[in-house]
Amino acid sequence: MNTTAQIPQWTGVAASLLLVVLAAALVVYQRLGVARDLLWAAARAFVQLLAVGALLTILFAHAGLWGSALWVIGMVVLSGFVAAGRAKGLPRARVAAWIAVGLGTAATLGLLLLLRVIKAEPIVVVPVGGMVVSAAMSATALTMRAIARTATEQRAAIEARLSLGMSGVDAFSPYLREGVRTALIPAIDTTKVVGLIALPGAMTGLILAGVSPFDAIRYQIVVMYMLLAAAALSSVVVARLTTSALFDSADRLVRFTHQS
Amino acid sequence: MSEAFSFDAVVFERDGRRILDGLSDHIHAGVVTAIIGDSGAGKSTLLRLLNRLEEPTQGFISFHDDRIDSIDVHQLRRKVSLVGQRPVMLAQTVLGELRIADPEVTPDRAHELLARVALGEFELERKTLTLSGGEQQRLALARALTVEPEVLLLDEPTSSLDDSSATAVDQVIRDLAASGLTVVLVSHDLDRVQGVADFVLVLDHGRLVERGSPGQVRYLS
């Protein structure tokens, strides 16, 4: 792929920083009280991206495919902490999140690699893996949060079903469906309006790199389907795992305090 | 008179607090037993222990001489059904409500169940959200009857109802007991207990302090 995009020099980066300084000045002038947050976010993004850039350079040059796979596994582990943090108090949340994000990532990324839709090279596996893990993590977190909230708010209704002799899984099934549906709305909506409201990241990147728009959309379609599948798979898996953890061996709804 | 439940040194603790403290007694079958006592005495907890929505910390409970933890929990809950303090509607229509536990309930069977709770005139497609609190409570009773329980556990069944609705629910409870059901109810309304219960158990700070007929129990006077 020949890159025809004009990549900004560091002077260009410094010039773009001027925009942030201008925005901060405007915020101070208006006394909106968010100037410190704005500057902190800009500084943090700079340092983070610098670190990631350096790390990816080393990774692409030296780590090979197994190193890339380890990198993706690391992202899955980290995303489990983040997703479980969205459903504090939920029993066995972290393990459920790791399994769900791991399965969602492994299934989608693995299939695309197996079918040779994407290349088994670090320069592809790492960024594409990152997108998949991110989509799976987001759906997992939303599903767990919806389930934790429902189990707390609908305790009386769930126990009314249990009192009729239903199993925990059956008693929770109407709420489980709702939880998965709610969690997948962002992924479905994003897929529905792709290209209409904003050009998606992968496609924009390819076009900037000089790829023809018609070639770029093929890549984007693969990415969108991959993200949708990862989100759906992770959501369904975490919903099942979390539901099982909500009930003890005698199908009693366990007590926990949900903190979102 | 046979025993439906017996308790043997039942202790229940939560978060380090002892809610039931060494309860040993029994509940007769085929009659209405009221569990009364001050707030925090452990009444609702005792009711929830009977169908294993809670588990004793120590001691054990038997149902017809079998320890309840040796009975399949789903079978137990179909035999010992609990209706909560505030009626919770689980479906949009009356018929839907009666099909929650048994999707095979026919319209004829539904009318039969509704008649047992004095709602025989109800249209099956009526929306549950349009029902009054008393009607919802009776529909919750009818829903519990779909699994043909031997025992109905009622947690403050009339506490959220106005007087006329509460009287209607009391009458339904008496009719159900007359048909052979064992009813165990928790109540703080001593006047209603005298009208509806055959036996009374009085709890105080997790201990059983009195038992007998409503006329014998000093707590009621």
From TrEMBL, chain B:
PANTHER family: ABC TRANSPORTER I FAMILY MEMBER 17. Residues 5-220 form the ABC transporter domain. One of its GO terms (molecular function) is ATP binding. SMART domains: AAA. This is Unannotated protein. Keywords: ATP-binding, Nucleotide-binding, Transport. It comes from freshwater metagenome. PROSITE patterns: ABC_TRANSPORTER_1, ABC_TRANSPORTER_2. InterPro entries: AAA+_ATPase, ABC_transporter-like_ATP-bd, ABC_transporter-like_CS, P-loop_NTPase.
